[in-house]
Design a protein that fits this description.
single chain; alpha/beta; Glutamate Dehydrogenase, Chain A, domain 3; Rossmann fold; 3 domains; 5-stranded mixed β-sheet; 13 strands; binds NADPH dihydro-nicotinamide-adenine-dinucleotide phosphate
């Protein structure tokens, strides 16, 4: 590893104690970037690496709100504005009890590179709260969102920082957040949030974008090997926004998705996922996946373990961080899995990724494979700025092209650095080149 990169990593560990996910995210990116710095040490001039790993701004705030029994509850709100060299900060908001500064920083750091890969003018950021929407009424979710936006509104704007959804933040939450922003600012500024409803500034295909994009990417990986998705067995984890639309696009390409999960367990349906039933349970009623197994004759619900023990050609982890570990990776390899594309952010542990490399499994990191969501968010901002509405087909066509370009660019860059087929190195270096050039051009700040 280049000594400058090593020093930066040591400093990251020293200055961010107790933040393992953030340290890991930085390590994984800098490990690849080291190859580029070896070739051209001037890339690291003017403390570029040290600036890159330090967020431009971190906002931490109190979110007091009132629950249905009249009790005042207090959560913590976060927004990390990491890097704006390429455009306004852009990245989702996560509402989940596991949220803390470490998680938000790690996701914000990843987001810089993901956004750069899309080729669009987007900086990187992330935010959220340790508020847990599970079991809360719509009124409670609204009260919380209004309280959260009351502080967040001071920091965001269509030219400053543009949040979107993530775990626990779907269209219901974006609606409450947008309503409160509008109330506070007294302006119709649709470009301030993405993932909005179609009638109030949203874009066709934004809901589908991340899941569809993952499958477009996985298909490109297969096409490169002279194969296609038709007839392939696909295992998926999660049953939220990303998982559901990954399953939908996989079905449209003639593949057979057979698993999905939530935090209560996972389901294996050997007959292939019945998407209408899954949507009815998860999107319609916010139910649990066990209900699906009760209504399908051969489907099995497992409260323990994970879907990665099911033999498949393609695996798409679409739930959350570190949900696929070294043992899971060995199981996938043993069962002949050919391709892994990350729908979630950082779902595969570092050790799992090593196993994929040793076993010849092609692996696409989330920053490349799940960039479709943010890419269509950017198309939503474009439509908002032009006060226009594109058709579903136009947006989906754009998405497919963006995913194809990301795929090609990752492979070209991997080849350039003598790492053919290494999507991790390709994605990290390609994105870094764009961000570092913009940072150098704009001077030290
Ligand atoms: P959702 O909240 O819609 O769905 C998350 C899903 O993951 C749910 O099924 C949830 O189960 C499950 N889940 C969450 N935590 C766990 C856990 N600890 N163990 C098992 N299952 C769990 O979120 P999204 O689909 O939007 O996001 C999923 C992933 O994709 C995240 O990593 C997110 O950062 C990433 N992503 C999302 C994008 C987007 O556009 N939405 C864009 C790019 C990446 P339950 O229902 O029980 O909570």
């Amino acid at each position: 590893m280049h000594p400058q990169v090593e020093r930066t990593l040591e400093e990251v560990k020293r200055r961010n104690p107790g933040e393992p996910e953030f340290q890991q995210a930085v390590f994984e990116v800098l490990n690849s970037i080291s190859l580029a710095v070896d070739r051209d040490p001037s890339l690291a001039d003017h403390a570029l690496l040290e600036r890159l790993v330090e967020p431009e701004r971190q906002i931490l705030f109190r979110v007091p709100w009132v629950d249905d029994s009249g009790t005042v509850r207090v959560n913590r709100g976060y927004r990390v504005e990491f890097n704006s060299a390429l455009g306004p900060y852009k990245g989702g908001l996560r509402f989940h009890r596991s949220v803390n500064r470490n998680i938000i920083k790690s996701l914000g750091f990843e987001q810089i590179f993901k956004n750069a890969l899309t080729g669009q003018s987007l900086g990187g950021g992330k935010g959220g709260s340790d508020f847990d929407p599970h079991g809360k009424s719509d009124w409670e979710v609204m009260n919380f969102c209004q309280a959260y936006m009351t502080e967040l509104s001071r920091h965001i704007g269509d030219k400053t920082d543009v949040p979107a959804g993530d775990i626990g933040v779907g269209q219901r939450e974006i609606g409450f957040l947008f309503g409160q922003y509008r109330r506070l600012k007294n302006r119709w500024e649709t470009g301030v949030l993405t993932g909005k409803g179609l009638d109030w500034g949203g874009s066709h295909a934004r809901r589908e974008a991340t899941g569809y994009g993952v499958v477009f990417f996985a298909r490109e990986m297969l096409l490169k090997r002279g194969e296609d998705l038709e007839g392939k067995i696909v295992t998926v984890s999660g049953s939220g926004n990303v998982a559901i639309y990954a399953i939908e696009k996989a079905l449209q390409f003639g593949a057979k998705p057979v698993t999905f999960s939530d935090s209560s367990g996972w389901v294996y349906d050997p007959d292939g996922v019945d998407l209408d039933l899954l949507k009815e349970i998860k999107e319609g009623r916010r139910g649990r996946v066990a209900e699906y197994a009760e209504r399908r004759p051969r489907a099995e619900f497992h409260a323990e373990g994970r879907p990665w023990s099911v033999p498949c050609h393609v695996a798409l982890p679409c739930a959350t961080e570190n949900e696929l570990n070294e043992d899971d990776a060995r199981e996938l390899a043993k069962n002949g899995c050919e391709i892994i594309a990350e729908g979630a952010n950082m779902p595969c542990s570092h050790d799992a990724v090593e196993v994929f490399a040793q076993s010849g499994i092609l692996f696409a990191p989330g920053k490349a494979a799940n960039a479709g969501g943010v890419a269509v968010s950017s198309l939503e901002m474009e439509q908002n700025a032009a006060r226009a509405r594109w058709t579903f087909q136009e947006v989906e066509g754009n998405l497919a092209e963006i995913m194809r370009d990301i795929h090609t660019n990752c492979l070209e860059t991997a080849d350039e650095y003598a790492r053919p087929g290494d999507y991790v190195v390709g994605a990290n270096i390609r994105a870094f080149m764009r961000v570092s050039a913009a940072m150098h051009a704009q001077g030290v700040f």
